């Protein structure tokens, strides 16, 4: 057998066919042979067939996973007449492996013919001033301008598709010299660059544009969460995973990914043509659900932007009853109506939600309708995880119940995707250790959608004395000062910088005390609906007016200011009684250097009183 030395003798009869298989390259010209031996007229006859086994081959990164391996080798036989179909993407350099099984003298040439939109490079990281090894119509022999592609036994080159079109890459060997002259072989690779692909909204802004396309071209991973909470409406539901929600009360909760809700957006564009083809979304783990929308990647219409599902009431009302399609391993075929939108309007938006943890990519396949054969494939690399795996956690509860301290890099969202900023969130009053996790998950999601790239830390403290009885506010307010010391110690131990801290409601008592009383160092402090007296930060904010004072309750009407609890300490001025110090005035003055105050006009607990018209006695 050719390519195998010392093959055992095999008997064949007259007229029998013998088939030769070359399993490896010959080590020299004429280095493999078949020896024939038979007896004729009593004499032994010997004949020899001499073979030289050699080849040139090309293997492309057919599945676009930035590697060439057995999957790509096996995929060669499944290529259709369209050849290797790849998405158009400038600065995306797809690997092509040149297998040179010819270790003989001769010339090796690479030729690129066809459309000028395809070009060949010797590196995946060319600099601005570099020129391609080949553009359409060019041939390179044994390398060009010092760029050697003819290495033995293999060499990697890179194909870039900057526009739509067909091209053919040919690899040719012609032997030279006394022994190799007359030997030749050739391999070719047909390529078809088309505009199709899956582009996530990587930077979570209002458009899916050039920056997102560039990241998709490099197969960047899009990190997101599994939609396993249970949102009911704008003000109710549970922000925890459904198994934790069910333990909070008697209600029956179910994960949103099981009942038709949607989460995030993707852009899908293609221009290969519809006739005779199916466009199929597929996921190996059945971990995604989809809602098809009329939104567009670039538009001035706020109801049609990629973020309309977050910002447009009209969009939400239109799609809140929309059918959710499961993206399975077998695939979901996109409708002709949706494909028409892509061709006519330059792109289409599909809302996706995570239904299970996975790191397998979302696949877009173009299949021949009649045969089901895959003509082209594009992928969007994904990492879907439970949302708590995307951010860090600090536990300063004295009982240490709830989520444990987790200060390491999150598995679901690596620090390489974050800025050098750190963002800490401190929840408010009457939130137990389980509810705190829900608050942190929801705040993280809202900040993520807003484009926040800081490293997020959820802080859990004990503000739930006798939970769920809200009549113990005074105990929790006192406990906030204990938590403040714990917060300062914990933040100091984290060894982090560029810190922004957010406090909600009574959580601001914790943060303000940590800064004013314990010297906790932060760069920015955002106060959200702070449940702390305004005069704690600046005495001038205290208003003793009894008429049209929005901070005075109607129940205080008719009472002189000196009778107010806020002024009780002044009754002891001039004495040595320590009760003169029992005031909120200027209690947290040092906080003003880093504080930004945000309040909601719809806060129902600490709302202003617009109707106050009390008159003094």
What can be said about this structure in brief?
This protein is of the alpha+beta class and about 625 residues long. It is built from ten helices and 31 strands. Helices cover about 15% and strands about 30% of the residues.
Would you mind describing this structure in some detail?
With 617 residues, the protein is α+β, with helices and mostly antiparallel strands. Helices cover 15% and strands 29% of the residues. The protein has a six-stranded parallel sheet, with helices on both faces. A hairpin with a 2-residue loop joins strand 15 and strand 16. Helix 9 packs across helix 10. The chain is elongated, with a radius of gyration of 35 Å. The model is unreliable at 259-272 (pLDDT under 50).
Notable features of this structure?
single chain; 617 residues; alpha+beta; six-stranded parallel β-sheet; five-stranded antiparallel β-sheet; 10 helices; 15% helix; elongated
Write the SSE topology.
Elements: E1 32-40, E2 43-51, E3 56-60, H1 70-75, E4 84-87, E5 89-100, E6 106-114, E7 118-121, E8 134-135, E9 138-141, E10 154-161, E11 165-175, H2 177-180, E12 184-194, E13 196-200, H3 210-217, E14 222-225, E15 230-233, E16 236-238, H4 242-245, E17 264-270, E18 277-282, E19 288-292, H5 308-311, H6 313-319, E20 325-327, E21 332-333, H7 336-345, E22 348-354, E23 362-368, E24 374-380, E25 382-385, E26 392-395, E27 422-426, H8 433-449, E28 455-460, H9 473-493, E29 499-504, H10 507-518, E30 524-528, E31 595-598
Parallel strand pairs: 4-12, 14-25, 26-28, 27-28, 27-29, 29-30, 30-31
Antiparallel strand pairs: 1-2, 3-5, 5-10, 6-9, 6-11, 7-8, 7-10, 11-12, 13-17, 15-16, 17-22, 18-21, 18-23, 19-20, 19-22, 23-24
Helix pairs in contact: 9-10
């Amino acid at each position: 057998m050719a390519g195998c030395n010392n093959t055992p003798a095999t008997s064949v009869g007259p007229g029998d066919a013998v088939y030769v298989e070359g399993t490896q390259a010959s080590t020299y010209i004429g280095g493999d042979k078949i020896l024939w031996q038979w007896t004729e007229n009593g004499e032994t006859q010997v004949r020899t067939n001499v073979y030289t086994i050699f080849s040139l081959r090309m293997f492309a990164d057919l599945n676009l996973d930035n590697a060439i391996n057995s999957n790509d080798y096996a995929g060669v036989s499944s290529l259709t007449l369209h050849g290797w179909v790849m998405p158009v993407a400038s600065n995306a350099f797809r690997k092509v492996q040149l297998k040179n099984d010819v270790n003989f003298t001769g010339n090796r040439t690479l030729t690129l013919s066809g459309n000028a939109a395809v070009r060949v490079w010797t590196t995946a990281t060319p600099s601005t001033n570099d020129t391609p090894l080949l553009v359409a119509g060019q041939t390179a022999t044994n390398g060009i301008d010092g760029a050697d592609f003819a290495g033995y036994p293999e060499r990697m080159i890179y194909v870039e598709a900057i526009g739509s079109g067909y091209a053919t890459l040919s690899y040719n060997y012609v032997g030279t010299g006394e022994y190799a002259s007359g030997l030749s072989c050739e391999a070719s690779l047909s390529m078809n660059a088309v505009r199709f692909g899956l582009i996530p909204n990587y930077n979570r802004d209002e458009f899916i544009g050039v920056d997102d396309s560039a990241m998709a071209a490099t197969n960047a991973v899009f990190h997101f969460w599994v939609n396993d909470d249970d949102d009911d409406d704008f003000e109710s539901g549970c922000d925890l995973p459904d198994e934790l929600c069910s333990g909070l009360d008697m209600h029956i909760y179910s994960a949103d990914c099981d009942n038709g809700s949607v989460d995030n957006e993707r852009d899908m564009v293609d221009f290969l043509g519809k006739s005779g083809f199916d466009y199929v979304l597929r996921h190996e783990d059945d971990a995604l659900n989809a809602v098809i929308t009329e939104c567009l990647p670039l538009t001035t219409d706020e109801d049609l932007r990629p973020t309309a599902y977050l910002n447009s009431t009209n969009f939400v009302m239109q799609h809140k009853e929309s059918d959710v399609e499961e993206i399975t391993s077998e695939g979901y075929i996109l409708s002709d109506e949706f494909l028409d939108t892509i061709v006519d309007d330059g792109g289409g938006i599909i809302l996706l939600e995570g239904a299970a943890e996975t790191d397998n990519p979302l696949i877009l396949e173009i299949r021949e309708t009649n045969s089901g054969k895959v003509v082209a494939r594009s992928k969007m690399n994904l990492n879907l995880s439970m949302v708590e795996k995307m951010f860090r956690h600090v536990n300063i509860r004295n009982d240490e119940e709830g989520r444990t301290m987790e200060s390491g890099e999150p598995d679901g969202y690596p620090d390489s995707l974050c800025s050098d900023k750190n963002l800490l969130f401190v929840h408010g009053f009457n939130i137990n250790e389980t509810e705190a996790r829900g608050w942190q998950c929801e705040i993280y999601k809202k900040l993520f959608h807003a484009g926040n790239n800081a490293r997020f830390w959820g802080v859990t403290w004990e503000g739930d004395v006798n939970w769920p009885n809200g009549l113990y506010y005074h105990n929790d307010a006192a406990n906030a000062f204990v938590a403040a010391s714990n917060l300062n110690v914990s933040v100091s131990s984290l060894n982090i910088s560029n810190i922004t801290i957010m406090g909600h409601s009574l959580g601001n008592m914790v943060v303000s005390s940590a800064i004013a009383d314990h010297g906790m160092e932060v760069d920015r402090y955002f106060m959200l609906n702070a449940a702390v007296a305004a005069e704690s930060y600046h005495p001038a904010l205290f208003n003793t007016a009894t008429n049209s004072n929005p901070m005075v309750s109607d129940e205080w009407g008719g009472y002189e200011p000196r009778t107010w609890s806020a002024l009780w300490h002044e009754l002891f001025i001039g004495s040595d009684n320590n009760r003169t110090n029992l005031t909120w005035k200027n209690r947290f003055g040092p906080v003003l250097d880093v504080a930004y105050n945000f309040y909601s006009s719809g806060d129902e607990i600490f709302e202003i009183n617009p109707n106050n018209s009390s008159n003094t006695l």
